[in-house]
Structure formats: C-alpha cells, structure tokens
Amino acid sequence: MGRLVISSGIMPAGPTRRRFLQTAASALPALAGEPKFAQTDVFRQGEGGVHTYRIPALIETRRGDLLAVADARHENANDLPNRISLVLRRSHDQGRTWSAIRTLRAVEQGGVGDASLLRDPGTGRIWCFHAFGPPGIGTPTAKPGAVTGPETLQVHALTSDDDGETWSAPIDLTPQIKDPSWRAMFATSGTHFATRRGRFLVPVAVFEGSGPSSVRNAYSDDGGRTWKVGPAIAPGTDESKCVELADGTVLENMRNGKTRAIARSHDGGVTFDAVTHDEALIDAVCNAGLARYRHGGRDLLVFTNAAAPTRRNLTVKFSSDGGRTWPQARVLHAGPAAYSTVLPLRDGTLAVLFECGERSPYERIAFARFDPAWVLAG
Q1: Whether 287 contacts 239, CB under 8 Å
Q2: What is the pTM (predicted TM-score) of this model?
C-alpha cells in the first residue's frame, strides 16, 4: 500500500548521511508486532447524485464512534459560491464499515462547506465549524463593511451533545471574530483540538482588502461561549493546522507555497515567533493534517499532506522532536491526492481521511487506519 521514504530536505551525504538516518530512526520509540493497515472509501464522486465530495473532516466521539463530514458539491466540484451541503457518515467499528450518508446541513439559498470538527475533552460536545455563503457569496465575492449579513462569508458552527446523533441550530460566530475591514474569512477544514488548559483553537484564513490571505487563530477559553481572534501570523499564508507540544508550545503549520510555513507560540496559540519554512515538508499548496500522537510512552507529531509539487503523493510523516525533523515517512497514496486530516484514536492507532483518485484528486474521500509500526515498517 506504500513504501518507506525519507522526508525530502537538506541532508548530509555519504557516511554522515547514514549516521544521520540511523540516529533519526533510533530517536523514535521501537514498535513491536505486525504492522496493521486497513483502508476503505467513505465518499465517492457521483454517489447519491452528487457531482463531487470534497473537504474531509474527522472526529472520534466520546463513546468511540467516528464521524466523517464532507462537502456534497451537488453540481460541480467548485468552492462557494456554489450549491454545497454538509454530509456525514458514522462508523461504530473504527472505520471498517460506515453508515448511509446523512445530510448534516443544507440551506435553501447559498451554500455551506469546509467543515472542521472539534471535541470538547471535558464535556464531549462536538463542534462542527463551517462556512456559510449567502446566495452568490464565496471568498472571491464577499465584501468588507459588515461583520455578518447577505454580502459576508460567515463562520458558523453546529454542536452536538449526543455523539453526533442530533445537532443544534447553526450559530453565527462571525460577529465575534470578523473585523469589518476584512473582505472574507473562513475556518480551516479538518480536525481541531483543545489545549491542555481547555482553550479551543480554530485556525482561520483572513482576506484583508484585495491582498493575499493570512492565518490567525480563533480561540475560546470558555467552552465555545465566546470567541476572540489573534493577530495575523504571516502574510501569504492560507489553511493551517496547529498542535500543542509537550512543553505547551503551540506549533502552527501553514499552507504557503512549495514548502510548509512554520511558527511557534508561547501564549497558547495567539501570538507567534518569526515564521520559517520547513524544507522537509514539500507541499502542493494544499490543506494538510497535523496531530500529536501520545500512546504507550510514545510522543510523536504526525503530519499528512500531498508531498509533491502538484496534488499527489499523499504521505504520512513522523517527528519525535517537536516538528524540527521528519525522518520517517510512508506514502499512503502515490497517485492524485489533495486535502487530508489525521486523528490519533484512543486505541493507539492513527486515522487519516483524505481526498484521492486515479485521474483526479477528487474522485473519492478514503479512510485509512494504521498503527505507527506500519509507517516504520515500509
């Protein structure tokens, strides 16, 4: 299903290179037993009369079910403004089988999309953040001058207190986090988290005037009742993921051209140090997945993305030093691939929900579940 590869980047040559790789490999905890790997398709292009399913989001509920959410792009594969609904499938058996597709949210006029999921570790409440575009409104057509309304691309949320069986009415978060001067903003799709102190962190892409987007983090310190947004991390950055490291540092990993942009925060993900680029994380200018894996004495960062100049080569990478090096990697899908999100499960395995296909990256959204040994085995 793949092959063991070493992350691209600047590396020494000859004997020095061999010593580097041996040291990097030994830095990761030894893993015993037969590697486990399973994969299945969750959404397929054309299923249910939908033109294309895009934008994977994934969460594990309090009782251990998996929820997979995606855009149902009814008439074409394009972003808002187009007719898009949010759909959901559930798995009771760690992704082996999935329920029938269920509509999570559809609107009579306009569209909704780009879902991300977060589970409150204290209450188990699940949040589904997403974009709502009134008729004719998407990132290219939204306008400054109002914090919400018919010309504003809005950030909405649904919540569920029963493991995703029922959901609240939509909550418009835009007035709390949008500056009137901003043309558009949306929350990055995928999977988000709460810090050890309970802060919800949701990365957002902001478009100020006619310029490029920049990443900021929306955050809540009271379980989602109120929200604030931090300053821009860097101009020209787009969809991003963040993770809290063992020492409390928040690492932001951002879409920003041919390699991923990286920044670190020491105040819980609000303000950040200077931005650098990780030459080991080649990128196809695409949304990616990032998570911290803690299980059985292991503490790793897991990163997934289309590791190529174009949208293909969906790859899983491990870091044991807080994202400073990525010595272990394995290709999950060598063909066309795009967005992904990664989630450590409570049984110690890892789950990745990702876009892939044979001719196009958007033919299906697949689910893969494996243990770390699968990545290391090759």
Answers
A1: yes
A2: 0.91
Q: What is the pLDDT of residue 209?
A: 81
Q: Which among 106, 130, 107 is positioned nearest to 118, based on CA atoms?
A: 130
Residues 9/280, Cβ–Cβ less than 8 Å: yes
The pLDDT of residue 34: 74
Write down the domain spans for the chain.
4-12+54-377
Tokens encoding 338: 């795009």
End-to-end CA distance of the chain: 9
Q: Does domain 4-12+54-377 have CATH number 3.20.20.150?
A: no
SS3 per-residue string spanning 127-180: EEEEEEECCCCCCCCCCCCCCCCCCCCEEEEEEECCCCCCCCCCEECHHHHCCC
pLDDT for 20: 32
Q: Are 285 and 255 in contact, with CB atoms under 8 Å apart?
A: yes
Question: What span, in angstroms and rounded, lies between the C-alpha atoms of 258 and 300?
Answer: 24
Residues of the chain with pLDDT under 50: 1-32
Sign, Cα dihedral of 36, 70, 241, 362: positive
Give me 113's structure tokens.
């999309």
> Tokens for 77?
């594969």
Q: Which residue type does 94 have?
A: Q
Encoding tokens for residue 148? 């919400």
For the annotated catalytic residues, the residue numbers are 79, 239, 339
Q: What would the two tokens of residue 99 be?
A: 């329920």
Tell me the Ramachandran region of residue 108: left when phi exceeds 0, alpha when psi lies from -120 to 50, beta otherwise. Answer: alpha
